[in-house]
Amino acid sequence: MKFKYIYTLLTLIIALYFVPANAQTKHKAKKPAAKTVVKPKAKPVVKKTAKPASPQQKGAAGLGDAATKVPIDTTKKGGKGNDAIQGNLSEEIVVTTAYKPVLADAVKIRRNPDLEDKTPFKAPLTYIPIDKRLELNTSIKRLDAMKRPAERDSVPTNNYVKAGLGSLKTTYGEAYFANGRDEALQVGGWLKHFAQNGNMYKQNTAKEEVGVFGKSVGEENNISGRITYNYNSNYFYGFDRYNAPALLQVDKQHFSTIGAEGELAKNYKDVENDFTYALKLKGYSFSNAYQAKENNLVLSGFFNQTIKQFYAGLAASLDLSTQKDSLYDHNNSLIRLNPYIKFQGDNYKIDAGVNIVDQFGYKSAFYIFPAARAELQVIPKYVRVFVEAKGDVNKSSLRDFAMFNPFIGQNIDLRNSIDQLDLAAGLKGTIAPGLGFKATIFRNEVKNMPLFVSDFDFTKGYNRFKVIYDEGRSRVSGFTGELDYKVSEDVDIFGRVEFKDYQMATVSEAWNLPKFLFKGGTVFNISDKITVSGTLLIRGSVTDPHLIQTTPTTTRLASLDSFADLSGAVDYKATSRFSVFVHVNNILNSASQTWLYYPDYGFNIFGGVGYSF
Prior knowledge:
613 residues; mainly beta; 22-stranded antiparallel β-barrel; 6% helix
């Protein structure tokens, strides 16, 4: 389109330049032009050369004036010479003025042409009809079963063994056995061994454990049980390093416990107004290297009736014990009854009941304690607030004391402590996805609180501990906080912290009880083959009533400084069956003492291999 305008413009410019040279003529025809007969094979007409312009023509103002003053011979002759006169065209043309072309308005260009190509782009459109039928069925459709994800280990393993060696003459071993993946019957057993020898004389400990278990699941009930045997041994190696005694009773102590338990419980069913029940029987026989023995048998159970959001039930137990040492042999037994009512909804949970305890044996007493708890969800799906009030009788046990402090002596005084009123309130829930927490403030009233204190007599080389009791009402107030942050399937961080304040009734201090305690750890699954874990224990300082001679005339109470114990482990799964592990304990190599004059083990490391089959 744009070339059309360009050609028109060039044509007008040529016309304006050359046309003024031609005259505008008025002509008169003297006679009509005769018809010329062209003969066949006529020779071509040769035009004569125009005469040069005269001086008058050169002096004319324009080409038009010159044309008016000088006649123009328009005679055309054909042939050669005068032979072609018969074909002449005689005509007189008179030019009166210069030719001035006048163009009509219709052909004038009053604007420049737009040379840009503004043709809009139109994308090709493709239409595909949807072949779908309109369904008017609004009923609930059946959900298809979800496919189970593939298991990591294509070949399941039911048995596992580990063995290792390390510094401090460490020997370690574990073994687990089971019958396999049978949903109706499970049978298995385990073995454990761990022993170390410290740098001090007779700083030797060993722990052994063996057990078997079984569980059978029927249509209505399930039956489970286990039999265990534990053997722990150590020596009384403690003494004052700055004032070594001339004689020391470095005797070997051991504690052996054989126990068994069995349970019958109704299988859980997601039905309304369900009636549930369970019955459990367990017991153990404990003894040490001397004459201390303890036998215990506990029969417990409960039944519960559910009516919509209402629960009513009764829990009961019969706890029979006989305790014997060289200076006593008595019976210490309890009967507990706990009737309760529970209400539970989407945003609340209320437990109301009482705990009735009857103590009989070497001492008789009867108690009724509250057993109430309430929870309210303050932030849906995230935070719950709870309050609790309860009480109970805590039976003194030779086995429990020995597991807590293995350096106790003989003829331990046994009295049951009474939790007269334990009050607690706090928050629990989830702050963010994977981040769970629990924070509790509490205030407890305890009668006959047991305390471990030193009973040293280094003049005789005696280095044992004993148990005393705060016979009045002791008050323990404090705060506990728990945190578990599961960052992902490969990272887990957890911890628990305790702050306690003791107000004793008859003793001056809460002997050997720390006011601060922190336990935490983490687990990192670096890959499917490598796992790194670590634990940290921080314990505050404690005080013992043992007097230390500072000067010939002054003494002070013995105290144990606070300490931190950091440990770590690395496990490498070389194949689906074979693995390698390394454990490092007391990385900080702190000279910590859990009990006075009995320092713990320093830095030690051990490792080994594991195999599953």
